[in-house]
Amino acid sequence: MATLPALELHDPQLAPKLLAAIADDGPGFFYLKFPSVDALDLAERTLELSRRFFQLPSCDKVLLKNDEESCYWEPGAAPVCIPSTGPGYRGVSGDCNFAGDRRESFNLGRAGGSSASPEGAIRSSEAYFELCFATATALRRALARPECLGPYLSAGAAEEAFERSTSLLGFTHYNYEDFRPESGYAAPGDGALEETQVFGIRPHQDDGLCTLLYTDGQPGLEYAKGRTDSARSRTTTEPLFSGEFCRTDAQFSEEILWEPVPFLPGYWIVNLGTDLYRWAQQSSLAAPGRVRKCKATLHRVVPRARTKERYSMPFFYEPNLDAQDPCEPFKKRRRGSTDAYLGGPHLAEIPSFPRRFGVDIYYILYVCVYLGPTATLWF
Ligand SMILES: O=C(O)CCC(=O)C(=O)O
Ligand SMILES: [Fe+2]
């Protein structure tokens, strides 16, 4: 098993080490050490909070359901809802981008100084969000240093592009216990794969600049290392990291070689996103003769022997909803009518912090977890 690079944020040599860690012939995954014992403790407490949340009955969790109210909306004269984006709870298979997967999730946006945030342990998730945000921002600044990506990144990942960041802290619970094969992923037209594929989360690439992942240590996360040499296939490895085929069936190919990403105590697992890929790519295309790719590596979570369930907390570091791609050819990436870049399912703006019945979502989460399910009847 290949060992991934392990970095420290306060290392004076971070920028050059980062450059080596994100080499375009490397895995696109690396470890980043928690800055302190307290920070690690905060992550553990937040993970425990998420465990307690997922133990609640479904009827309580769906009160926090991601829906049109909490989704991100494409700005414009006639705003358009971007399905399955933004904060809120998605039940097992309830995320339209990952239908059939054995995963329920809850995404938290930034509280934005909400006065309704209660005292107590729920604050740990806000504090953990801020820790991740600050860490990812420091990583972005290190990436933009001349000793690292420098000119390849400067245009895309400017400070302003993150002023209204759409970052989300995800709580994820994988539960393989009650898997029904018929609800697993079946590749269209491929009988051989039918009823055989069960995923915690199917192969995908993350959006945004990077993801900081903390988990309960259970195995199952894997990244696409390459493809087998096959006379049948003329495909390059590009789709494994370009974001070009992000969440398409091409990512289910049996030719893809998967490599585990083991948990490393005291470290986040970091992977790069498709925004970083595009920005580096576009900046380098704009400067002829130089090309610098940053892998947004394809990855997945699969059940492993004796793993009945697994908890993880991906922090998706995302730019503003209206952040522009710096250069052609990808500027008009999604909707032809606008220059605004719109990202994928983890992305989007937090138009206002989601509220239900006039109550702050943190408060509802607090009530669900600490005051017990019956208290939610108040809402
Ligand atoms: O749970 C994990 O280990 C990875 C989760 C992930 O890749 C995602 O939510 O995008
Ligand atoms: Fe991911």
UniProtKB/TrEMBL annotation:
Keyword tags: Dioxygenase, Iron, Metal-binding, Oxidoreductase
Name assigned to this protein: Fe2OG dioxygenase domain-containing protein
Transmembrane segments: none
Family: Belongs to the iron/ascorbate-dependent oxidoreductase family.
SUPFAM superfamilies attached to this UniProt entry: Clavaminate synthase-like
InterPro entries (alphabetical): IPNS-like_FE2OG_OXY, IPNS-like_sf, Iron_ascorbate_oxido_reductase, Oxoglu/Fe-dep_dioxygenase_dom
Single Gene Ontology MF annotation: dioxygenase activity
